[in-house]
Amino acid sequence: MRCSYLAIITSVWYSLYQCKCYSLSIFVSLLFTICNRLRKKKKRIGYTMGYFEGFLPMSRCPQAPAEKLKLGNSIDASLDLWSRGDVQTCTDWGAPVIWDGMFDPDHYDQAHRKNHSSVSLTVFAVGRYLDAYLKAFLLSAERHFMVALPVTYYVFTDVPERVPDIHLGPRRSLKVVRVQRHSRWQDISMMRMRAITDAIESQIRHHSHYVFCFDVDQVFVGRFGSETLGDSVALLHAYYYHRPKSFYSYDRNPRSRAYMETGDFYYHAAVFGGSWQTVKNMTETCYQAIMEDKENQVEALWHDESHLNKYLWLHKPSKVLSPEYCWDSNIGYRGDIHVTRMLWSEKKYDTLRVTE
Question: Residue 218's beta-bridge partner residues?
Fold first, then answer.
């Protein structure tokens, strides 16, 4: 019976896609409802659903070819918004969405070197996450992250003595910041907002123009360069960028400060960044909202990610990164993902999220 459902969905969808019938809200709702129910019973159905999602057309850049971007730094004027007709290359508010083929890497690197741009990278490796992921993360960052610019790594951990000794290239440095170990992984995730705010105020703002914040359970596999720099940078979640907005997993609890009825995109908290001033305001605002929820005995659906989405809904990012900047290979083939620049590592929640 399950195969019959999927066969029917496949046939109907392909016919509609071929005739370019894009007003498919009823069909899309049916597709997701059936597949979501089946996915709970059998994992491979989830992969099949992911394959179908890749056929859902994205919106297109609303700007006319003669129009220029309203936001972003002056270097972004060189972006070719029309080089990728298969994806959305700019937002409704004029911010670029960065995809492979839109930019000249050398031009960006030269411009940022001329501007003496510098970057801080923050990453949290608390408890068992340090031994499982940190070394691979740092080694891959040395090969692919902002290789043309000065970079300072900030490793936040409860066990500083276990941070691996990594050979760093010229103009690269690493600082270790001790943080408290919380009893629940949800609190570890949410409290990073406070730790980043404090680090920016006490150290980062004195030597770096930009800050990027990463989860540790991922690895760089391709260029993650200066084309990503901007005042406020958000990442399209790999699992949501093709889905209708009605399926975004915003926090729907009106009691939470993260509550959202709708939004622009669904952003992934595994990667976000911007100027140090903007990131400080972002993390400080999210932390205050988290603490207000705690006082009201409320916890947002996806913790700090829910609060980050709320912030980016109210304060539009000046640059959006496509999912090629943080991809999960379990999704399978997608025709619009020409390169992958960062990949999710294998998740081991059953063992790594256990607290002693």
Answer: 344
